[in-house]
C-alpha cells in the first residue's frame, strides 16, 4: 500500500526553511560539520535527515526539534524565535 505524502503549504515551507537556516547557522557557529553531530550514538542518526532539516525540506515534529537543540547544546526556543 502506498502512503500519500501530505502537501506542505507555502507558509509552512517558509517556516521550515527559516528554522532549518537557524539550525545550520548554529551548527556552523559552533564549527561543527554534519558528521560531528549525527551517527548511531547521536539523537539524529542520519546525516541525510539532518541535512533535509537544515534545507527546510523535512517537516519534523517537536521531539525532533528537541533532539536537534540538545545536540547543539541550546534550548529549542533559540531555533524558533524570530
Describe the structure.
By secondary structure, the protein is mostly helical. The protein has five helices and no strands. The longest helix is centred in the first third of the chain and has 20 residues. The radius of gyration is 13 Å and the shape is globular. The termini are far apart. 10% of the residues are buried. The model has no long low-confidence stretch (mean pLDDT 92).
Q: What is the number of E strands? A: 0
| Number of structurally distinct domains | 1
- Give the helix proportion (percent range): 55-70%
Secondary-structure class: mainly alpha
Structure summary:
With 82 residues, the chain is mainly α.
Question: What is this structure's SSE topology?
Answer:
Elements (H helix, E strand, L loop, with lengths): L9 H20 L4 H4 L9 H8 L7 H11 L4 H4 L2
Descriptive key words:
single chain, 82 residues, mainly alpha, 434 Repressor (Amino-terminal Domain), 5 helices, globular
